[in-house]
Amino acid sequence: MERALNAMPAVPLPFDGLFSGTERIFWLYLLTSAAIALVLMLTAGSWPTRARLRAYWLSPDSRLDALYFLVAWGLRTALIVPLVLSVQSVAVWVMHGLNAFYDPPFLAWRYRSIVLAYTVALFLLSDLSRYWLHRLMHRSCWLWPFHRVHHAAEVLTPLLVYRIHPFESLLFALRHAVVAGAVTGVFIFLFGARLDLYTIFGENLFIVALFAFTANLRHSHVRLSYGRWLEHILVSPAQHQIHHDRRYLQSNFGSCLAVWDWMFGTLRLPAQTQGAPDFGIGPRGVRYSSVAALLMEPLRDIKQMLRRI
Could you tell me if residue 276 is inside a domain? Predict the structure, then answer.
């Protein structure tokens, strides 16, 4: 019950993520992704030169991501976490709202069935809500300036996942609180306080099984495709790399499941792209060459838009 209602865990130190299964940079996820990349390179008979590795890991984008990783942690700790609703608060509101109109049925399901249903429901609704918020970040002229920070990178490394403007981080944290809180509140109303999640390394079972071990290849130049059929269901690293190609920014918004892109017409498969990937946003990307620019340029864009109203 406590784990089901736990909304916002204590904020870890910057590199505690190396030892937390809920973080992309968990050592096992990094090691597995590196092993997959090594197998792919050996299979293709293509081994990067020392100069190429240096150009990749010491590129301006890579250095900026490493610095912003620390800055973003500080901002989350000082600003975002205190502002975000808790899952517990939302769950209580939902329960009170339902109790005002209906008597709790307390359905007599087996405990294992309740836990499985809760785990699946939370995974599916969370992934669907991430799809729609991510899509809105691209489609809304008021939100795109913030999300453009993430897409400005022309070199994709695992730390790019943390190059998120604080305002976008706040939106996604609120999304999590609302969705997880609503699901938790409904399940407690239906079944009582017999909730728990099936987890691996402290993360939802389905997220780890479908996402975590190849997650770090998504923000990389290692092209791993799952094949045409499976990529209608699951998001492969190659599909997310397509999303970072400035020619295809309006496709592949899914996080774990590609089925949402398939259902709502935004799916693009690797076979539907041409030529080498063109990461970044073009000449405008130079605006985001420092930590200060990552933080301030979106605000300047919003200010200019407000002046034109």
Answer: no
Measured over the CA atoms of residue 134, residue 135, residue 141 and residue 147, the dihedral's sign is positive
Q: Is residue 278 part of a domain?
A: no
- Domain holding 63, by residue range, is 58-197
152 CB contacts (<8 Å, ≥6 apart)? 280, 281, 284, 285, 287, 288
Q: Which residue has the tokens 């390179």?
A: 41
C-alpha torsion angle, residues 198, 202, 207, 211 (rounded to 10): -140
CB 193 within 8 A of CB 184: no
d(CA 157, CA 219) in angstroms, rounded, equals 5
Residues whose CB is less than 8 angstroms from the CB of residue 35 and which lie 6 or more positions away in sequence, other chains included: none
pTM score of the predicted model: 0.90
pLDDT in tens, 253-307: 999 999 999 999 999 999 999 889 999 999 999 999 999 999 999 999 999 999 9
Phi, psi of 245 (to 5 degrees): -75, 125
Residue pair 253/138 in contact by the 8 Å Cβ criterion:
yes
Whole-number Å distance between alpha carbons of 38 and 47:
9
- By three-state DSSP, how is residue 1 classified? coil
Under DSSP, the state recorded for 10 is P
Indicate the number of domains in the chain.
1
